[in-house]
Amino acid sequence: MEIKKKSADGKLVLKPIGRIDTVTAPELAKMVVLDNVKELEFDLSEVDYISSAGLRIFLGSQQKMTASGGKMVLSGVRPIVKEIFDIVGFSDEFTFI
């Protein structure tokens, strides 16, 4: 998995490419450094699969952003990936754009 990262003016955008599974999730987790971040965006437009390990990263990030008064969004989510969020009942936990 490749991860593109953009950071400016308190906003962090992480764009993983490929699968987020038990093998690749730790790499993504290392990129989630939220010091001085007010807005976190995961651009999932090039993700075709997310396992429970990936979902844990999103949940943990959401909790940290909420606790610090920040905002987190998931953008570009493909229907096949959105279905995973729906199946596990997480669709209401996140803001999708």
Q: Describe it for me?
A:
- It is a single chain.
- This protein has helices spanning 25-31, 52-67, 79-87; strands spanning 2-8, 11-20, 39-43, 47-50, 71-75.
- It has 97 residues and is of the alpha/beta class.
- Strands 1, 2, 3, 4 and 5 form a five-stranded mixed beta sheet that branches.
- The longest helix is centred in the middle third of the chain and has 16 residues, at 52-67.
- The radius of gyration is 12 Å and the shape is globular.
In short:
With 97 residues, this protein is of the alpha/beta class. 33% of the residues lie in helices and 32% in strands. The protein is globular.
SSE diagram, text form:
Blueprint: E1 2-8, E2 11-20, H1 25-31, E3 39-43, E4 47-50, H2 52-67, E5 71-75, H3 79-87
Parallel strand pairs: 2-3, 2-4, 3-5
Antiparallel strand pairs: 1-2
Keywords:
97 residues; alpha/beta; 5-stranded mixed beta sheet
Structure annotation, total helices: 3
Give the % helix. Answer: 25-40%
What portion of residues belong to β-strands?
25-35%
Termini gap: 23 Å
Write down how many β-strands occur, each being a DSSP E stretch of 2 or more residues: 5
Topology as H/E string? EEHEEHEH
Overall pLDDT confidence: 96
Class by helix and strand content? alpha/beta
Biggest β-sheet strands, sense, barrel: 5 strands, mixed
**What is the overall shape?**
globular
